[in-house]
Amino acid sequence: QVQLVESGGGLVQAGGSLSLSCAASGRTFSIYTMGWFRQAPGKEREFVAAVSRNGASLDYADSVKGRFTISRDNVRNTLYLQMNSLKAEDTGVYYCGAIPYYSESRTANRYEYWGQGTQVTVSS
Q1: DSSP letters along 4-57, please?
Q2: What is the pLDDT of residues 11-44, one digit of tens each?
């Protein structure tokens, strides 16, 4: 079992920044690829970013590339998402997830563990 707890969400004006964290406990954090997804009301959960087990490989959705940065600290068992130049369309509940294989990290239903989510609201 892996327990994931997100934090750092909130309300921010367009153009602003937020930093999300996802604290992991339980099984070894470093054996999993980690990802961030988001879900807006009435929409499906969508891929935002992923980072491989050792942090060497990164992947971003086109909509956030150049604005968001994913990173991880395998000593602190924590995943991060730095979000800059936020837009209204970035609004949603942000979830972190753990998946065994980096190659599948854009597919939500392949994730084994999820956090409870943290709300991000960007006002225009």
Answers
A1: EEEE--EEEETT--EEEEEEEEES-GGGSEEEEEEE-TTS--EEEEEE-TTS--
A2: 999 999 999 999 999 778 999 999 999 999 999 9
